[in-house]
Amino acid sequence: MAHPAAPPSxxxxxxxxxxxxxxxxxxxxxxxxxxxxxxxxCFCGHGSGIGVYTAAHPLGPWVYHDNVGCTKPTTPGCGCxxxxxxxxxxxxxxxxxxxxxxxxxxxASDGSIQYVWTGDRWQSAADGVKAHDLQYWSVLAWxxxxxxxxxxxxxxxxxDTITVEVGA
Length: 168
What we know:
The structure is a single chain. Helix content is 0%, strand content 34%. It contains no helices and 9 strands. It has one domain: Tachylectin-2, Chain A (5 Propeller), CATH 2.115.10. By secondary structure, it is mainly beta. The protein has strands at 21-29, 32-39, 51-55, 63-67, 99-107, 113-121, 134-139, 142-144, 151-153.
């Protein structure tokens, strides 16, 4: 399933993404634009999901693919608060217990780019001070999605440590 043609210039992408999301991260990898969103959680300790959208143009149209930050829900589009409609367990099952804040592009020594997802682990500080809350970082793993033919970020797994190769 290829992306539809880009919209004409001087138009808006309009609103896309599930209702009640925040903390977007948008970046371009190869020739595809990615937008990742998490559930609105306002300094929540339970974390949120990571909904993945792609487009051939930054104005869209955007296509939803998956929520890669949650244990897999039984209802598509649900899990980790990605849908406040008919989904159960709206706030549970975040794998990172973090709310997304940024995707860092890190050049490697072989000329490739690594994409490091970062998130805030709200309410994680032992002393309760927000400025002492922890971060969660993970290098995005990519694989070709057979349905769309696109490289997509893969399901997150908890990692205690990560290694990022930094180019010279």
